[in-house]
From TrEMBL:
Organism, scientific name: Jiella avicenniae
Top-level taxon: Bacteria
Domain Putative restriction endonuclease: 12-151
PANTHER family: GLR1098 PROTEIN, RESTRICTION ENDONUCLEASE DOMAIN-CONTAINING PROTEIN-RELATED
InterPro entries named among the record's database cross-references: Nuclease_put_TT1808 (IPR012296), Restrct_endonuc-II-like (IPR011335), Uma2 (IPR008538)
UniProt key word Magnesium: no
GO molecular function, one term: endonuclease activity
One Pfam family here: Uma2
Matches recorded under SUPFAM superfamilies: Restriction endonuclease-like
Entry keyword set: Endonuclease, Hydrolase, Nuclease
This protein's name: Uma2 family endonuclease
Amino acid sequence: MSQAAQKHWTIEEFLVWQEGRPGRYEFVGGQPVKMMTGATARHDTIVLNVLAELRQRLKGNPCKAFTADYCVRTRHDQIRRPDAGVDCGRRDPNDLVASQPVLVVEVFSPSTRDFDRAAKLVEYKAVPSIRTILYVEPNRPEVYVFERSDEALGGWLDERRVVGLGEAIAIPTLGIVLPLAEIFDGVDFVPGPLLG
């Protein structure tokens, strides 16, 4: 076990340690955890499409899209890196952590699908500023939408599944709509088992 894995760090220590280090890490329970690398072309295309749409639709808005290089603090000793997201907080050019994330987007991969749907979802829902969580299915035009509501039991509406290239996802907190045709632009769907 490396010395990095033996010490219980603070988030600040982790951020300093990570700076300039190759690869991408999350911070889980006071420990750095190397993230999986090697996203498929399909996964990468979807992430780029989501980021392009968010950037375009948020022009002139103080809220800004971010990539997986930017962090979301999900607990006092935990940092996650969603594939994409939107931060509506005040941003310093040197910030590494979203100050007020309101949207997080995860594109499923075979190796992380179950973890994303279970543990990460619970963590994201616990962040008070997050209002919308999107899980994108890369193998068919399908997105799972989780929305916070002050009126809903537990603070979150039931999961909503949006299916079909003619559909769109409204994100009321940001005042934008994301068409599935744009999210999946350039993606060929092949019948068969789930791919990443």
